[in-house]
Amino acid sequence: MALFLASSASAAENILTMKLEHTTNDHALTLPKIAITRLFDDTSSLTLEKSWFWQEGFHESGWPKHDEAFVNYSLPSWKIGNTQRWSVTPQLGAKFRSNVTRALAAIKVGYRGDGWSLAGRYRYEHETTHETAEEGRAGRIDVYASYAINDDWTLLYNPHYHFKHENDSPDFGSGDRDYLEQEFLAFHKLNANNTIFGGYIRRDETSDQASVDPGQRYSSWLLGYQYKF
Q1: Cα–Cα nearest to 123, from 170, 158, 97
Q2: Which tens digits make up the pLDDT trace of 56-103?
Q3: Pick from 33, 60, 159, 211: most CB atoms within 10 A?
């Protein structure tokens, strides 16, 4: 989603994205991701993403503890107004991990100005844990504020707020029923097909009862590369 907001309106048909995050806690997490996105003529898109993570001091030889697959389909956007600057985009998706499956449904409303854009999205998440069949329902609210400094540099600010929908769902890792994350990213366009980006993700602290690094922030530094073809 962040990459779409930072991309130009004349995006190519396919986008390859590679990202690497590294957290700031004592036993740092390393999180590589790779994704392929197909953009269709009707403004819909399909994204397939694969990610892994491992943690210092816990996983031998850097072998990932978990791997996760993510699929997301954005339906064709509805354009609103004479200038068609407003858009409404429904989305459907799912995340698959070795011990959890999560179904996702979202709606995004956006406005594109001259060199800037602003959008909001609500996403519903239904999670099922495989071993216990325990279910949880959560919501996520995103705000995307994008500003193009010039033809080559774009800034993106993406705060997202997560909350539980019902009282009997397991708490988040913070030990609370909600938490806030904030992403600060900068995109540098090298040419028509290649873009590099990076930034910082600020996360809430973990619970004091957490088994690993209690009371610490799992904030991340992020680097990435995008290739359009």
Answers
A1: 158
A2: 776 655 555 667 999 999 999 999 988 889 999 999 999 998 888 999
A3: 33
The model's pTM is 0.86
What sign has the CA pseudo-torsion 198, 118, 173, 170? Answer: negative
β-pairing, 178-189 vs 29-39, is unpaired
Residues in the chain: 229
Q: What is the DSSP string of 90-146?
A: EEEEEEEESSEEEEEEEEEEEEE-SSEEEEEEEEEEEEEETTT--EEEEEEEEEEEE
User: Could you tell me whether strands 153-164 and 220-228 are parallel, antiparallel, or unpaired per DSSP bridges?
Assistant: unpaired
- The pair phi, psi for residue 25, each rounded to 5°, is -80, 175
**Pairs from 117-123 (Cβ < 8 Å, separation ≥ 24):** 117/5, 117/144, 117/145, 117/146, 118/143, 118/144, 118/145, 118/146, 119/5, 119/143, 119/144, 120/144, 121/1, 121/91, 123/91
Please state, in angstroms and as integers, the Cα–Cα distance from residue 38 to each residue in 6, 16, 53, 120, following that order.
Answer: 16, 9, 25, 22
**Which letter, b or e, does each residue of 188-225 get, where b requires 16 or more Cβ atoms within 10 Å of its Cβ?**
ebeeeeebebbbebebbbbeeeeeebeebebbbebebe
Element (H, E) at 4: helix 2-6
CA dist 143 and 161 (Å) reads 9
